[in-house]
Amino acid sequence: MRPTDFPLYVSDLDGTLLRNDTSLSQYSRDTLNALLDQGLLFTVASARSIATMRHVLADLPLRLPVVEFNGSFVSDLASGQHYLIHDLHRDILSELWQQIADAGYTPFISTYDGTADRLYYRDITNDGMAWYLRNRQLHQDPRLRYLADLQSGLDDQVVCLTVIGPGPELEKLDEAINQRHAERIQTHCYENQYSPGWHWLTIHDARATKEQGILSLKRMQGLEDRRLVVFGDQVNDLDMFEMADEALAVANAIPALKERATGIIDTNEEDGVARYISAHWNGTPK
To answer: What region does 270 belong to: left with phi over 0, alpha with psi -120 to 50, or beta?
Structure first.
């Protein structure tokens, strides 16, 4: 296969490329490094931010931009430069804020302030929020800022509002928010696998999807004609599964994603993504 015919591989991170302890195994790291040196076209599309990607993808020389925050940003992993920003429209931010407040919650606010990414917080009112704050402090997240007037954070380019609480309550809030703003936002409501019992409701702009992020990445890099092979495990991977030429679900993926997959590979604990790419990326299974 000629280098110009190599497919583009895009993987989700948590539950897919990463192990359950959030690490990239030594096997996956060594395999991907070797193949990247040979010309592999590989990147990631994740709900994570650049700040949380870097410590798990250290020493992995990704030459292509990454899709972060479920498509809110398309960015360079090394420098953090954003090539594309899909932020929430300012005219609905106040309404979203009020709906969240009326439900008894205070969100974490993820933004770009024109010079740097920010993660604003104020009141920590439950153990799920406390876990997230400790996790960000532990990793010395440079975005993290306490903001007494938290609502003033809405003056930045807001890419995500994150609400943390019990599942049933957040599902009701998710429904209420979508009843009013469904055409202008993208929401995901799911249990945090690293903080069991606590659910996250993330609110993004409607354009902020992995599908749109990957399409933008392909245009930027002149890869529109390349076959697209994607890997995932969760509901936020559905849109990129629908656009891909080949969509591989890890064996630990949710049933809804497996139904849309063109194939099932080994679990994330078994390095399914790296093993599949190693066997197939040049068109000749080993």
So the answer is: alpha
The dihedrals phi and psi of 158, each to the nearest 5 degrees, come to -90, 120
Mean pLDDT score, 51-79: 94
Q: Which domain holds residue 124?
A: 90-205
Amino acid (one-letter) located at 182: A
Write the CATH number for 242: 3.40.50.1000
Domains of the chain: total: 2
Domain end residue (candidates: 205, 223, 252):
205
Confidence band (pLDDT; 50, 70, 90) for 4? Answer: low
pLDDT > 50? residue 200: yes
285 in any annotated domain: no
Radius of gyration of the chain, Cα coordinates, nearest whole angstrom: 19
| DSSP assignments along 126-175, one per residue | SHHHHHHHHHHHHTT-TTEEE-SSGGGGGGSEEEEEEEEE-HHHHHHHHH
Same domain, 80 and 120: no
Strand pairing class (246-250; 228-232):
parallel
pTM score: 0.89
Distance between the two ends of the chain, CA-based, in angstroms?
14
- 253 and 158 in one domain? no
Q: Which of 7-16, 53-62, 115-124, 247-256 has the lowest mean pLDDT?
A: 53-62
Longest dimension (CA), the chain: 58
CATH number at residue 121: 3.30.1240.10
Distances (CA, A) of 216 to 86, 124, 231, 235: 11, 36, 18, 21
